[in-house]
Amino acid sequence: MSIIAPGIMVITVFLLASALMFGTFLTASATQGDSLKDLATVNAAQAGDQLSITSAVVDVPDSGDLTVTVVNTGSRSTPDFSRMDVILEYTDTSNNAVVTYIEYSTSAPGNNEWTIPESGITPDSFNPKMWDPDEVITIDILVSPAVKSNTAALVAVVTPWGISDTSAVANP
């Protein structure tokens, strides 16, 4: 009888530990399954979205004035430009490497701001003031310090949906 009591306790502990581990495994599997479903939903939504920077240029040598032209080659509209990201990497006139996030402005851009001018969406016939598929936006950027002429620069444009494109900036 003295051997039976410890044997029952060992079996009981083993069964409780097994039940606890199995419950944890089931919870983790369900959470992972939900995450995979969410990831598939996001990937399916992004699959039809694209944009393309067709030109990017420093307007005046040794200045901070830039113009970027972007085409929405995807299938989703962008209604809120303030949720877009514009990032610029360049060399300033003091030969310093600069990477800066450019803020959106609804009016004329100040230092380190970008805007879309009044006639900046073409053709803007379907949803006025929204960037729809097959429409082109012109982005005016003003950065400080100024971009040094004849140096490399790179611009990145990202939509609220996480779709992005980067392009070298023509810098005379």
Question: How are the elements arranged and paired?
Answer:
Blueprint: H1 4-47, E1 51-58, E2 65-72, E3 85-91, E4 97-104, E5 113-115, E6 121-122, E7 136-142, E8 154-158, E9 164-168
Parallel strand pairs: 4-5
Antiparallel strand pairs: 1-2, 2-7, 3-4, 3-8, 5-7, 6-7, 8-9
Shape: elongated
Number of strands: 9
* Overall pLDDT confidence: 91
How many distinct folded domains? 2
CATH topology description of the largest domain:
Immunoglobulin-like
Low-confidence stretches: none
End-to-end distance, in Å? Answer: 95 Å
**According to CATH, what is the class of the largest domain?**
Mainly Beta
Count of alpha and pi helical runs: 1
Radius of gyration using CA atoms only:
27 Å
- Amount of helix: 25-40%
Q: What structural class results from the helix and strand content? A: alpha+beta
Describe this structure in a few short sentences.
26% of the residues lie in helices and 31% in strands. It has 172 residues and is an alpha+beta fold.
